[in-house]
Amino acid sequence: MAQSTFKRLLVGITGGIAAYKAAELIRLLVRQGVEVQVVMTQAACQFITPVTLQALSGKPVFTDLWDDRIDNGMAHIEFSRDADAILIAPASADFLAKLAQGRADDLLSTICLARGGCPLMVAPAMNVQMWENAATQRNMMQLRNDGVAILGPDSGDQACGDTGLGRMLEPQDLLDALEASLQPKLLAGKRVLLTAGPTFEAIDAVRGITNLSSGKMGYAIARAAIEMGAEVTLVSGQTSQKVPMGAKVIKVTSTQQMLSAVMENLNGQDIFIGVAAVADYYVLNPSEQKIKKDAHILTLELAPNPDILANVTNLPNPPFCVGFAAESENLHEYAEHKRRRKNLPLLAANLIQDAFGGDDSELILLDDKGAHPLPRAPKLILARQLLKHVATMLKEQKTFTGNK
Ligand code: PMT
């Protein structure tokens, strides 16, 4: 399980039926090694008991500004000082209104007002009519302007029987959104185009040539780029990966389709990353019907596919290009050779036995300065490190050329 970016989190729970989801959220956080301090409003205690959350967080739960377990009566100051961030989940319409107005009439709202520089995140949860009400929308606008991160809400069936926006994000999605909101926005204002997954070259109506790429690495990079503030277009071969929230995805099958989608979407992109495992050959005369089995030897005629990355790097004004190389041996040497041959400022090299299909991998980043190994980690962590490297190189390039 991936480690969180933060170590100590204050989770505030307010009154709403989604309070039951906070139990699972806290369980997931604790499993990731996060120290969780729960603070509840009186209304939240009508939906879920402090005892449940105390058992899950392993720490006393506080509900009252005048709680005599708090030594010096300064809980509202101390709690936020000790936390890397505050997350209110669920955040009711009433509590959001209170935050927007800067009111402090209970322990949780007082902690929020006294939080100083501690980041505040809210996961709204309410009926669709309450969410769409002009007053709530005004409050949300105010909170955004005040630098509060808004996680969700989701759309779907609601406890009251209505359908629409207002559901609190599911615990795992909330955790993902929380991680995302804490990533440095190193690619804010940048546009990133990337390829992911395998391509598939048809032999007949049901068969084809493909490879074992799962799409995990490419989708992780897409997600990490969005977290860092980029606008992302993902040209993807056939995979079962979940599309990262906020990415524009173009699904393709063959290499030729992938090339067309890349070239059609290249205009205005700042960064191009070729993560896809592209089939090097296609079948010259694929059969439209399923080929019948008989006793004869079947010969397939294969012709080389275009190189998508080369089509991009050879443009007169290409975006910053990153290639990948999957090798089965002599990783460093073969990959560096590929980087020079493909004229790439940066290439991420991985061993085939590490990289295809798994959740974890390791990379060596190769650039003009040399090799930068990234030790074994979940692909999302590697993706963030890769993009951090890209952001640094872009910054250096800008400083060097003097562009503003
Ligand atoms: O999807 P996963 O299961 O998570 O696995 C990730 C991965 C192993 C697919 C990924 O990390 C990776 O290494 N992708 C590149 C795979 C590869 O073998 O690349 P290559 O050596 O064939 O090509 C080098 C570069 O040229 C790549 O950036 C590739 O996208 C690009 N290329 C290759 C051929 C071609 N016709 N067009 C291309 O653009």
Quote the average pLDDT.
93
Q: How far from one another are the termini?
A: 41 Å
Tell me the structural class: alpha/beta
Tell me the name of the CATH class of the largest domain: Alpha Beta
Instruction: List all distinct small molecules, including ions and cofactors, that are bound in this structure.
Output: ligand PMT
User: Unreliable segments (pLDDT under 50, ≥5 consecutive)?
Assistant: none
| Oligomerization category of the chains in this entry | single chain
Tell me the number of structural domains. 2
Based on the coordinates given, report the CATH architecture of the largest domain: 3-Layer(aba) Sandwich
Outline: elongated
CATH homologous superfamily assignment of the largest domain: CoaB-like
Helix content percent band = 25-40%
The count of helical stretches stands at 14
Q: Major sheet: order of its strands?
A: 12-11-8-13-16-17-18-19
**Strand elements, count:** 19
Strand percentage, roughly? Answer: 15-25%
Biggest sheet record: 8 strands, mixed
Please outline the helices and strands.
Blueprint: E1 8-13, H1 19-31, E2 35-40, H2 50-57, H3 75-82, E3 85-91, H4 93-101, H5 107-113, E4 120-124, H6 128-132, H7 134-145, E5 149-150, E6 154-157, E7 163-167, H8 171-181, E8 191-196, E9 201-202, E10 208-209, H9 216-227, E11 231-236, E12 248-251, H10 255-264, E13 271-274, E14 281-283, E15 302-304, H11 308-313, E16 320-327, H12 331-341, E17 346-351, H13 352-355, E18 360-367, E19 370-378, H14 379-401
Parallel strand pairs: 1-2, 1-3, 3-4, 4-5, 8-11, 8-13, 11-12, 13-16, 16-17
Antiparallel strand pairs: 6-7, 9-10, 14-15, 17-18, 18-19
Helix pairs in contact: 1-2, 1-8, 3-5, 4-7, 9-14
The structure holds ligand PMT.
The site of ligand PMT has 28 residues, from helix 9, helix 11 and strand 16.
